[in-house]
Amino acid sequence: MTAGRLHGRTALVTGAARGIGSAIARAFVAEGAYVFVTDVADAAGEAFAGSLRGRAAYLHLDVREEADWEAAMARVLAARGALHVVVNNAGITGFEDRVVPHDPEHASLDDWRHVHRTNLDGVFLGCRHAIRAMRASGSHGAIINVSSRSGLVGIPGAAAYASSKAAVRNHTKTVALYC
User: Which of 34, 58, 161, 178 is catalytic?
Assistant: First the structure.
């Protein structure tokens, strides 16, 4: 493998056991990065990380839990000495387990909070701990927060998802200005 644009860099990707997250992790490995594949789907995450030819490791990370972020960052820094890229990709629509109303009139507060806890609180915690880890190791890095076109246009039947993705867009701007 020739040295890619991310040669020698360490990345952490949330929600990376499948879908967009696994595609991001695979692309980073192809560019030379060492990737921490994180997810709550432990078996799938471990299998996927194992498929990346020794260029990745799996970490259990529930993005909603600050203690999980603290543990993940400690493991990354202990294993690699620095963190250069964090991709806050983990997200849910709210329809994963069952179809329930997600329109502005009928969505329950619990369902609203469930989506926001993953999609927005997870990004907040990811940014907070990525900034701290990057500063602690003296690395200059990048934080990438995955939003959606739904954060721009809204979805009447998925109000929590759309509002969470709009908030991710604005939070990303805030983090950029802060850093």
Answer: 161
Q: Give the model confidence (pLDDT) of 116-158 as tens digits.
A: 999 999 999 999 999 999 999 888 899 999 999 999 998 999 9
Distance CA 53, CA 44 (A): 16
Look up 161 and say whether it is catalytic.
yes
Its sign, for the CA torsion 112, 12, 172, 179, is positive
Spatial separation of the C-alpha atoms in residues 12 and 34, rounded to whole Å? 9
From 39, 65, 38, select the one nearest 124 (Cα to Cα).
65
Whether 161 and 113 have beta carbons less than 8 Å apart is answered as no
- Does residue 56 sit in helix, strand or coil? strand
Show Cβ contacts of residue 67 under 8 Å, excluding neighbours closer than 6 positions.
none
d(CA 20, CA 153): 21
